[in-house]
Amino acid sequence: MPTKHLSILSANLLVGLFAGLFLFTQPTQATTQDDIASKNLQIQELERQIAEYQTQIDQRQGAAKSLSNEIGILNARINSVQLEIRSLALSIGKTNDEIFTTQQSIAIAEEKILMRKGALANALRLLNHLEQDNLVEVVLKNNSLSDFFNQVNDLTSTQDNLRINIDEIKSLKTDLETEQDKLEDQRSELENLKSIQEIQRRSAEQTKNNKNNLLKVTKGEESKFQNLVKQSKADIEKIRAQIYYLQQNGVTAEDAVKFGELAAIRAGIRPAYLIAVLEIESGLGRNVGRCNRPEDPPEKNWRKIMHVRDHQPFLDITAQLGLNPDTTAVSCPQFVNGKRNGWGGAMGPAQFIPSTWIAYRDQVARITGHNPANPWNIEDAFTASATKLANAGAGAKTRAAEVAASKAYYSGNSRCATASCNSYANAIQNKAAQIEQDL
Predict the structure, then answer these.
(1) Are residues 164 and 219 both part of a single domain?
(2) Does residue 125 share a domain with residue 23?
(3) Long-range Cβ pairs for the range 314-318 (8 Å, 24+)
(4) Looking at the 3D structure of the chain, how many domains does it have?
(5) Model pLDDT for residues 209-245, shown as the tens digit of each residue
(6) Residue 48's domain spans which residues?
(7) What residue range is the signal peptide (predicted)?
């Protein structure tokens, strides 16, 4: 059999092998998609039940203050958070399924690229073989005019296949990059879901403790509850229990209340809501201030862990403040299975990345009188967060407005509907309700 025909057969064999690989992966992907769809239905049902509990809470909050009403609110909050935790568990499972599907898509894209490269090499060899003879030699080697035109057609066909393979490889590489970006986003979503789930577990325990303490202090008597209402004032000890993560990052309960109220009032939003946002953000940012310190290894230097977009803003900020950019602590990126996922570089208690801080710096300076504004200063950091939330509509002080502002703060999109986005906004509302009672 002529060499050129063997080459064409080899190319066809490569296509056949790939088709077999694709058919093999289809049943697995279909099963995973069924699992994802099933989890979505369960999550939707839990969200419906959570909304019912929120309606109960809203109705009870509009009624006269009484012990039974307060216990009813706490019970509804406990049940709602427990449903949130179940929903988060399903979302974590769903995201794992989505990661598996994306990894399969990446494997298929990589296999396609390899096979296309094989076909490309085959086409190049065939083209080289066909182009070795000049026109006179081709005419003399062929027994008939028909054979001559067949060889010319083979040459044209091979050149066309070469172009097709090159274009296909370019397209596949673009698809591969898209899938790899998608995988990184899904891994970030997974880590955030796990963090929010832990935050909600802590919230559920805290609400249960509040309920038990209320029953213990009042002994179930309405008169004792009414006395508590009359004597109510800011309870620093209770607030201290509510801001576990902020305290881990060096913000005291006293400072949280002082600067939280100051920044919120200036921006026209609820103080409890602002403190709740900062607490949940601190819970998500487990690596706050753990990179770029003097004792940290080179791989934790700001140039390594920060997106290039933030390099110049970070240098501008530290230069204005007279800080050494190589020893000023910033947040570390997340690590998943020992591999970095996303970027670090967020600064101070409010965890603003440098490029975002630049956008609010002048506005914060006008409000606080600190020029330049400092992201590591508690008053400036809280003011920046309050300003950002107010700009997103939190000044309306309604649940809907605050949920939208929380989503915008988290994702940049006030209508974000991902599992972590919804859970983040709900976690803030739960935490704000707890803090509100103690302010």
Answers:
(1) yes
(2) yes
(3) 314/345, 314/354, 316/354, 316/358, 317/347, 317/354, 317/357, 317/358, 317/361, 317/372, 317/375
(4) 2
(5) 888 888 888 888 888 778 776 665 556 777 877 787 7
(6) 1-231
(7) 1-30
